[in-house]
Amino acid sequence: MEMGQIIAILGIALSVSLPGIGSAKAVGKAGEAGAGIIAEDPDKFGQVLVLQALPATQGIYGLLVGFIMMTKINMLGTMVPVDVNTGWQLFGAALPIIIVGPISAVIQGKTVLAGLGLIAKRPEESGKAITLAVMVETYAVLALLASILMVNGIAV
Amino acid sequence: MAIVEMKKLLLIGLESERQPILEYLQDMGNVEITDMDEDSEEFMDIEHSADTEYIDKLVNQLAETEFAIEILNRLGKIERKLLEPPTEVTVRALRDRIRNKDEMLAIVEECRDIDRRLNEIDVRVKRIGETIPQYQAWIGLDIPVDRIEDTKTSKVLIGSVERNKAQAFEEKVKSDIELMYIEDVGSSRDTTNYVVIYHRDIQEEAESILREYGFINATFSGIKGIPKEIIKSLNAEIRLMAEQRQQMLERIAALASNIGELELFYDALTVELDRAKAALRLGESDRTFFLRGWVPSKESDKLKEGLSEVTEYHYLEFEDPAEGEDFPVALDNPPIIEPFEVVTDLYSTPNPHELDPNIYMAPFYFMFFGMMVGDACYGIIMAVVCAYVTKKLKWQGDTKKLGYLIALGGVSTTIWGVLFGSWFGNVGELLGISPILLSPLDQPIEMLVLCFALGIVHLFAGMGVKAYMNIRKGDVWAAVFDQGFWYVLLIGLILMLVGVGGQVGKYMAIAGAVGLILTQGRHERNIFKKITTGVLSLYDLTGFLSDVLSYSRLFALGLTTGIIGTVVNEIGIMFGTSVIGWILAVLVLIVGHIFNILINSIGAYVHASRLQYIEFFGKFFEGGGKAFNPLSIKTKYTQVYDEEVI
User: Could you give the CA distance from residue B610 to residue B616 in angstroms, rounded to a whole number?
Assistant: First the structure.
């Protein structure tokens, strides 16, 4: 296997795993807090679930970038040759989601925890709790977009 | 198609006719009763102690009924069909239920009784389960435990030795000591248990041996009989308890057929409780009561007529709200706009002095939601499933709105899916269906431009609404200065950016900027402040820029759906090499696509909402209104006939 391919695969692996870890951490924390709220009032399950799902998206964004890179080097079929230069280009293109993904997931998880506190006290304000958490997500979306555009623009 | 006009209402009636009047208002469901204000202090001295007592009673009965419903559901093996619509009842049936409630309360009482009995049984069985091992440890003892006593010549005792010393203990006694007898009668986890008999002559020697091996005396105080027999009777008791438990469950099963009646009763109690609570808000004298509230203007005649039918002894007066007075906000939108109210309500109820934003927001929400899911097949599934379930289960209120919101979102999703050529991810592509508009992944720049363009339209629309509000308030100049100049500046800049219209863009931008510099400081007194505020206002350009960039999420989230769908398909195809493989593949496809729909519709819902809240509402919407909350029939389990509501 060529060095370029290895670098590209490294990029894919990181962009799938790091945001995934971040999301898992945030979703897990939110789930723990959510279970406490549901114990008090099972009817809040729907609201809690939506909030808990919010930081799950970074992991999906990571998978997306990874997948686009996989199709780019045709990993699911016969892999196309990738020189070292292109390999690093692909790796660099994945960096936004590799870096911003996990960090924003964890931070969004904290906002979600605060939002869950809000729901516990004032369930009618769940829309606001969701909006606050979605504000954080913006940056993950932007990183995703940048990564996708960059990967897309690299000629292999 | 906006915020409903309200009239203030004053109603005075006879105390003796309070109940029928309140019931009428509740059936009609269009009057919000407000607390008495200070000017009616003389009425406020009356204590509502009888009412509060009644309310406490109702609250208690409601809790007990809910408990009964819960236990019947849990233990009664009630079969419910999937997607079973709620039972329909008439208002009369609801009210009749409350008037002969003894029968229902008896069932509720019985449920509580059964639960108490079941708990007792469980506790008893648990306790027996814990005691049996204690007797098990002495299973070989064939003397009744209460009869272990010394004889004239010998001592008899029972006790235990640690298991690892047991063998040595036995050998020691058997080989060395005459006149001492021990018998192993059982063992517990770490001890072996013995009966020990020795002659009084060797008492000292025996005691020293017992001490040496750490023999501990055991006693069974207050217990009679042989351990084996005791265990037998305990087991019999467990069987008896199990039988009783079974009987209780049969009683529950027999009661379970009443669940429908109980649910009706629960709703009837809720309705009665709402009415009773409303009575607390009334002012009262010895013979009359005094009610203030709000009613939609167009319902006022109907209220007048209806009340005259209930009783002729009443006084009714309507009054328009004073200038600037806050009144509760009800919205009246056409059915196609109504579902979008749920989005706005999550943010804030509009205040009574502004425009209802829903009609302006709805088309954009519709469009953005669809773009962010953007798959023709998913859209069809969402639209059909949500519309069907909402209709079939007869959802009401916010749930109904949300159901239709997602259904409408599905329609939009289908449209965008066709435009982008996305059918179950890449299935359309494999079948050779080409996109009508563009393929987002292949033409990313075009797609991004489309998103920004739609964003600019959205933002301009928001500014337009604000301008319209200014004009409606009579402040035409504010509309020209605060929105008009921005339009000129922004359109000029956009023209310059895309290079259309030659120098026009440049001059428009300059004109707009100069206009803003000159007018944005118009509220300041000081000339310097006028200018600096004007110049600083141009900084809002960065805000506008970040607002526009925010619409790139339309692109990103739309891609997410397509790509996850494609991944699911690819995984499915990878499995599809044998018969079992194909079965797995179908499973993967079904689960994967359902997951994709769920995760992406949640994403589309929250992000489309966010674009309204932050980008659109930020331009004009104030909010902070109090939603109209009339005294009405609110039910949980049953559905009241529409025709029956007067």
Answer: 9
- Which of the four pLDDT bands, split at 50, 70 and 90, describes residue A152? confident
Cβ contacts from A onto B, under 8 A: 72
For residue range A24-75, list pLDDT tens digits in order.
999 999 999 999 998 888 878 878 888 888 898 899 889 889 988 988 888 8
**How many distinct structural domains can be found in chain A?**
1
Q: Which of B131, B209, B195, B202 is nearest to B159 (CA)?
A: B195
List, in sequence order, every residue forming a beta bridge with B10; answer none if it has no partner: B292, B317
Domain B143-225, CATH: 3.30.70.2750
Q: Where are the alpha helices (DSSP H) in B393-443?
A: 397-420, 427-430
- Cβ–Cβ below 8 Å for A145 and B552: yes
Q: Could you give the CA distance from residue B410 to residue B405 in angstroms, rounded to a whole number?
A: 9
| Backbone phi and psi for residue B615, each to the nearest 5 degrees, phi listed first | -80, -45
CB contact under 8 A, A53 and B602: yes
Give the pLDDT of residue B453.
Answer: 95
Nearest to A142 among B346, B552, B606 (CB): B552
Three-class DSSP category at B76: coil
Residue B402 has what pLDDT? 93
CB-based contact B382:B604 (threshold 8 Å): no
* Domain span at A137: 3-153
Q: What is the pLDDT of residues A119-147, one digit of tens each?
A: 888 888 888 888 888 889 889 988 998 99
Strand pairing category for B638-640 and B87-89: parallel
Return the pLDDT at B37.
60
pLDDT value, residue B363: 96
> Which of the four pLDDT bands, split at 50, 70 and 90, describes residue B644?
very low
Q: Which residues of B touch A57 (CB under 8 A)?
A: 560, 599, 603
Provide the whole-model pTM.
0.80
Locate CATH 3.30.70.2750 in chain B. Answer: 143-225
CATH number, domain containing residue A18: 1.20.120.610
pLDDT score of B537: 86
Q: What is the number of alpha carbons within 13 Å of residue B276 lying toward its C-beta?
A: 19
Query: For residue B342, how many other CB atoms are within 10 A of its CB?
Result: 20
Q: Which of B550, B563, B609 sits opposite A64 (nearest CB)?
A: B563
Whether B334 shows a pLDDT value over 50: the answer reads yes
Nearest CA among B58, B154, B407, B558 for reference residue A64: B558
A120 Cα to chain B: minimum distance (Å)? 16
Nearest alpha carbon to residue B279 among B289, B266, B271: B289
